[in-house]
Amino acid sequence: MAESSSTSNPLAELNNIVSNTIALVTQLQDVLAKATSDKETGNSSSESNLDAVALAHDSASLIKAHSTKISLLIINKPFTPTAITKVLRELVAGPLPALVSAVELCHADRYTRAVRKDLSWRCGRVLKEFKELVQRIPSDGEVLTDAKKNGSSGKAAEKGSIPVTGLLWATCEDVIALSKPGVAGYLVHKVEQYRDTLKDIMEELREWGDEVDDDDDDDDEDGDGTNANGAEDSDVGQLTESLEATHIADTQAMLDDLLGSQQHIPRDDPDRIRERLDSCLRRLRLTTLLYQALVKRRLKTLPPFPSLPGSDVPSRLDEIVDLLKTIPDRFGNLAMAFYDLDPQAIDGLMDECFFDAFAVSELLAKPWTTQKDEFTDWARKFQVEIKKG
User: Which pTM does this prediction carry?
Assistant: First the structure.
């Protein structure tokens, strides 16, 4: 009887479907959390060839489109409960559960652990922001006020439906951005990001190496309060002149120099820091070339996904990507050791950095489907060069 009453009352039916939708999304969030924390990282037990990444793409696209309809319906007159109810039913019947199914089907042994983890995180954000939007659907049959549409300020500030919709769009686009280029395209993008970080570190180290500690210069103070040029030695005066002459973007660097927070290689270089730096820069450039080569010769030649059951390609990729992600962090630590002029730390970190680079080349030396190719020979030459001090 209650169901009949709800059916004959569009607003009551809307409020009922809103409650059910919020409950469903909460359940889906729990399912997703369990899938994400799966210690086995979602190893497959079937040979389904359904493309989980494509399913995520289509689901996110539909959620974005339907959410746009909801966002417009709750702020424009006349308020039409039946139209909102229809959109929510369509979402509950397909895109929402399909989004979670995509993560469940994205098994690590067929898509890589990296893709599964990232896809799960992005889909979780979609569910979170979608629930935020549904919770803003008015239950009184009136369109949202300007405050509830745009958001309010003060102690009881609340995010409006329009900003919430914008966040939901962004999360849907994140899922689409991951899935649109496919697994190979996603991995190419990640590796190119790591390579760019390496290039930045290399450029910073090179610029740092061009600076020389001025401690050994002959323009020491005279002892009469003036410098070699006869100018009064005033820290305040020098700082004021620097502030006037230096662009605002260079202010932090100027302050760093003033406070002595960054050391440079001494002219006499008793610890042979420059020799170590030259060796580091040479092999760091080799490492950036390795990243560039593996993108072209290995990632862009990956076999189709999902991988066939029993394939070692996903596990090889996970091992490689973990190393490729670690290497820029290690080089960042190495740069700090150079800045500290710490020869012992430099030697230890250089060994770690270039051992990892050697390991990557070894893991990638063999092609995906054959035993040897042109890149295999290149990798062997790389290993010889990377070992040189």
Answer: 0.78
